[in-house]
Design a protein that fits this description.
Structural class: mainly alpha
Distance between the termini: 34 Å
Number of helices: 6
Shape: elongated
Helix content: 55-70%
Number of strands: 0
Length: 135
């Protein structure tokens, strides 16, 4: 295997990682249905659960412990450590080439949750099926 081939494989793997991180970031930050809960409301509900734990019977205790775990996970999700703007910038740099190489269409990116503006910035247009632009 030539060095050029090894380099091309390494570039492809890095592009794949960049695309994966961005799509995972989108999924983690996807808005949920219904009224948005604030960190304060989740913390209040956590405090209520803690209060009820002290006097709960065995079965209620089990359910309250699970509810506490769910609320703690929700609270952690509300404070994402993911910088989506940095992931998006990296995505924009590699998405067009990745799209062309893998034959991924504009509509597929949109169905995966990628914003139209982001695709435009990456040079991926609706006009061509596999991510090629008219320019």
């Amino acid at each position: 295997m030539s060095q050029a081939h090894k380099d091309a494989l390494a570039v492809g793997r890095e592009q794949g990682r960049t695309i994966r991180r961005y799509l995972e970031g989108l999924e983690a930050n996807k808005p949920k249905r219904g009224r948005k809960r604030t960190p304060e409301s989740v913390k209040r509900q956590l405090a209520t659960v803690e209060e009820h734990l002290a006097s709960a019977d065995a079965l209620s205790h089990l359910h309250l412990v699970q509810e506490r775990e769910d609320l703690q996970r929700e609270l952690a999700r509300q404070n994402p450590s993911t910088d989506l703007s940095a992931l998006e910038a990296d995505f924009i740099k590699v998405a067009r080439e990745y799209s062309e190489r893998k034959g991924i269409s504009y509509s597929t990116w949109r169905k995966a949750g990628v914003d139209a503006r982001t695709l435009r910035d990456a040079g991926i247009s609706r006009a061509r099926g596999s991510g090629k632009t008219n320019g």
